Amino acid sequence: MRENGQVTSATDSPLPAVTRLIATDLDGTLLRDDKTLSDRTVAALAAAEEAGIEVFFVTGRPARWMDVVSAHVHGHGMAICANGAAVADLHADGRLIEVRPLERDVALDVVHVLREAAPGVSFAVELATGIHYEPAYPPFHMDPGATVAVAEKLLHEEAPGSAAPVLKVLAHHPELAPDTFLTLAREAAGDRASLTRSSPTALLEISGLGVSKAATLAACCAQRGIAQAEVVAFGDMPNDVEMLSWAGASFAMGNAHPAAVAAASGVTLSNNEDGVAVVIERILAAR
Predict the structure, then answer these.
(1) Secondary structure percentages of the chain, helix, strand, coil, to 5
(2) CA distances (Å), origin 31, targets 1, 28, 236, 241
(3) What H or E segment, with its residue span, contains residue 281?
(4) Where are the beta strands (DSSP E) in the chain?
(5) What is the pLDDT of residues 134-175, one digit of tens each?
(6) Which one is predicted more confidently, 91 or 205?
(7) Distance (Å, whole) CA 264 – CA 242
């Protein structure tokens, strides 16, 4: 969280002396509610890249669901996916170039703990190759080839190291309030894995311990010689909190969860009001 506890608007929040990288979440942040990009946002992204500012898409989505922005990839074309568990090359059809997996034995342990702590929970397993889910889990219509089985079977591998890496496990509860479920799960399994959420429903995303958007973004910036103070980040949900806290300057959307607002140094307009574009235009105007 920001030490000063103060949140300012998109027009008066301090910006870095030099902005070299923009890191933006997608759903609820860069994308409008209809999952499209406005013409203003498309123009702002292109202008930033033309000005020499790298743009990183940093999302909870898997690489195969990045088609919503694939037409607007410039420069390096890399994206941080699955809440930091994977780095994908969008110029190469989302090929994964780095993976920070959730070990299967840890995933099984978390599944067992959450079954006991939250009866009625159901699970999905997001592999580097696709998603699979339990019979009680809300079905993924975008992944018709998914295997349906209990999580213990989905996480089983015939021989150690023989199966695709686990990027994250998703846990859904049909009755608990989203934040209540997250608090309960963190108390029960937070010492084993990283737990967060980005959905308006009681759907948790479970990654390897220490894996987050912020951790992977920090590593990518270090590889490029980009300082933390030179990064501007945007987000709207609890899975953005670490990234918003880490970046030199950060903006929660006008539609953001209170935890995201508390973590950011400023608040911009909502995703439907081109809140990211508003700040990018200000960055470029200040150059």
Answers:
(1) 35, 20, 40
(2) 25, 6, 11, 18
(3) helix 275-285
(4) 8-9, 21-24, 54-58, 78-81, 86-89, 95-99, 122-127, 130-133, 166-172, 193-197, 203-208, 231-235, 249-252, 266-267
(5) 999 997 766 767 889 999 999 987 655 567 899 999 999 999
(6) 205
(7) 9
Residue partners of 188: CB distance under 8 A and separation at least 6:
113, 114, 116, 117, 118
CA 91 to chain centre: 20
If DSSP states are collapsed to H, E and C, what string results for 35-84? CCCCHHHHHHHHHHHHCCCEEEEECCCCHHHHHHCHHHCCCCCEEEEHHH
Which residue, 81, 111, 107, 43, is CA-closest to 217? 81
Written as six digits, the tokens of 114 are 């959450």
Is residue 39 scored above 90 in pLDDT? yes
Which of 282, 185, 233, 186 is closest to 80 using CA atoms? Answer: 233
Question: pTM higher than 0.70, yes or no?
Answer: yes
Residues 45-69 have pLDDT tens digits of 999 999 999 999 999 999 888 888 8
